[in-house]
């Protein structure tokens, strides 16, 4: 006979000694079983209405310790895309091995017999659960498809609006810009237009006249002479 580990007391008993299933063990067992039964009860609530969610590795990778089998079991069932909450727990509680181990555990620990059947799930119940899971998965996929369709419609509507805004800018604003350019050009050539540009132009011509007087008559003389000659000839 080797060592014995009591998961309830978290104590190892070595060869030659017997683990005492006394008062301490029983009070710890009550606490452990209440938590264990509560967990199974929570999972049982989803038997008729399974909960299907989009898989999230931070939430759906939970495990639970089955005291009866001494095994760590995945709480949920997932394909990496979707997760069926409590699916793993319900499936485990319905296996013949778990049923056999539960009976053994209850007898060894002298646990309350009223609680025993609360941690065993009948095979028929899991069969019905699987049918409900298939329906829940189908409706989940339909909802997902509908959501994707809505998002695609929204993107199309946004793109259409963007195109319309761009089109109206081209149709309204661009001709207006052209009109303003034309107006500015016509003001430049219109002598009656009291614009800044005209004032600038007259100031510029004054400067030129002033410069010509400063440069002196010498530089202009040949040109004036030539012009005078031409005028004379005319
Ligand atoms: Zn113990
Ligand atoms: Zn088990």
The helix/strand order is: EEHEEEEEHHHHHH
Number of strands: 7
Helix-strand makeup class: mainly alpha
The oligomerization state is single chain
| Biggest sheet architecture | 3 strands, antiparallel
Ligand types: zinc ion
Helix content: 55-70%
Distance between the termini: 142 Å
Structure annotation, total helices: 7
Q: What proportion of the residues form beta strands (DSSP E)?
A: 5-15%
How large is the radius of gyration? 47 Å
Average pLDDT confidence is 83
Strand order of the largest sheet: 3-7-6
- Morphology: elongated
Task: Write up what this structure looks like.
With 234 residues, this protein is mainly alpha-helical. It has a domain at 32-146. It is 65% helix and 9% strand. The chain is built from seven helices and seven strands, in the order ββαβββββαααααα. β1 (4-6) and β2 form a beta hairpin. The structure holds zinc ion (2 copies). One zinc ion (ZN) is lined by residues 66, 68-69, 92, 98, 101. This is Centrosomal AT-AC splicing factor. Pfam families: CCDC84 (PF14968). InterPro entries: CCDC84-like (IPR028015).
Structure at a glance:
This is Centrosomal AT-AC splicing factor. The protein has 234 residues and is mostly helical.
Overview features:
mainly alpha; 9% strand; disordered C terminus; 234 residues; 65% helix; binds zinc ion; 7 helices; three-stranded antiparallel sheet; two-stranded antiparallel sheet
């Amino acid at each position: 006979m080797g060592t014995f580990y009591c998961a309830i007391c978290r104590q190892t008993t070595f060869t030659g000694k017997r683990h005492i299933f006394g008062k301490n063990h029983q009070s710890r067992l009550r606490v452990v079983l209440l938590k264990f039964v509560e967990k199974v009860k929570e999972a049982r609530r989803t038997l008729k209405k399974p909960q299907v969610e989009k898989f999230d590795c931070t939430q759906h990778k939970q495990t639970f310790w089955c005291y009866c089998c001494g095994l760590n079991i995945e709480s949920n069932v997932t394909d990496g895309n979707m997760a069926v909450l409590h699916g793993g727990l319900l499936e485990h509680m319905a296996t013949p091995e778990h049923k056999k181990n539960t009976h053994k555990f209850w007898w060894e620990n002298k646990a309350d017999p009223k609680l025993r059947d609360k941690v065993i799930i009948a095979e028929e119940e899991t069969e019905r659960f699987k049918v409900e899971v298939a329906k829940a998965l189908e409706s989940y996929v339909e909802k997902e498809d509908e959501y994707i369709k809505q998002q695609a419609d929204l993107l199309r509507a946004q793109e259409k609006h963007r195109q319309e805004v761009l089109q109206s800018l081209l149709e309204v604003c661009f001709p207006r810009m052209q009109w303003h350019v034309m107006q500015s050009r016509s003001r430049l050539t219109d002598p009656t237009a009291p614009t800044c540009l005209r004032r600038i132009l007259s100031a510029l011509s004054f400067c030129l006249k002033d410069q010509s007087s400063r440069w002196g008559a010498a530089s202009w003389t040949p040109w004036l002479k030539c012009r005078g000659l031409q005028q004379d000839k005319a």
